[in-house]
Design brief:
The complex is a heterodimer of chains A (112) and B (111). Chain A is mainly β and 112 residues long. Chain A is built from no helices and eleven strands. Classes of the chains: A mainly beta (112), B mainly beta (111).
Chain lengths: 112, 111
């Protein structure tokens, strides 16, 4: 079963606008990760936020985590056409090893 | 630097035929290895993961099996493919407690 569920399922914005997507999960986690997938390709890791962190930045990416609400958000600022991709959250709820559970993803289209 | 190779990129197989997808990792030792499947427009479903040679954990009962004959080699197999086995198969590796690094995937179509 899917642990994380992204919202919205699809997002269309103009270049230069910000894109925000949310992820909700059901159980306690050790960390939450966001990945990006270009069409027909493998996933690329973007950012990891640990359960004791509330916010993290990486370039134009900002991730927040609210463990009380079991939710996370990914913000892409000043979007570019090259940001067009699907974005997935993944949760790690294990204490041994690294076994991620992925959500269904948000498809982002950035129009030039 | 570490690299992951997954092949073939695309595969069309008839129902009832066998399957073998191979994944190899270079530049690291004793990685965790994973096979995921992605249905069209959907998220990833973990099929198998391995923390060492010969150690395979199956997440979903199905028509597939996995093997790890060498430290950096992970193989996904089936004796007889079903139509429902169609999908995008992704291999990934990670060090312990670190993000996953994915291969470019294999698009499998069972006809």
């Amino acid at each position: 079963s899917q642990q994380g569920e992204e919202d919205p399922q699809a997002l269309s914005i103009q270049e230069g606008e910000n894109a925000t997507m949310n992820c909700s999960y059901k159980t306690s986690i050790n960390n939450l990760q966001w990945y990006r997938q270009n069409s027909g390709r493998g996933l690329v890791h973007l950012i990891l936020i640990r359960s004791n962190e509330r916010e993290k930045h990486s370039g134009r990416l900002r991730v927040t985590l609210d463990t009380s609400k079991k939710s996370s958000s990914l913000l892409i600022t000043a979007s570019r056409a090259a940001d067009t991709a699907s974005y997935f959250c993944a949760t790690d709820a294990t204490t041994a090893g690294n076994k991620l559970t992925f959500g269904g993803g948000t498809r982002v289209l950035v129009k030039p | 630097s570490q690299t992951i190779h997954q092949w073939p990129a695309t595969l069309v197989q008839p129902v009832g035929s066998p399957l073998s997808l191979e994944c190899t990792v270079e530049g690291t030792s004793n990685p965790n290895l994973y096979w995921y499947r992605q249905a069209a427009g959907r998220g990833l479903q973990l099929l198998f993961y391995s923390v060492g040679i010969g150690q395979i954990s199956s997440e979903v009962p199905q028509n597939l099996s996995a093997s790890r004959p060498q430290d950096r080699q992970f193989i996904l197999s089936s004796k007889k493919l079903l139509l429902s086995d169609s999908g995008f198969y992704l291999c990934a590796w990670s060090p312990i407690k670190s993000p996953l690094h994915f291969g470019n995937g294999t698009r499998l179509t069972v006809t």
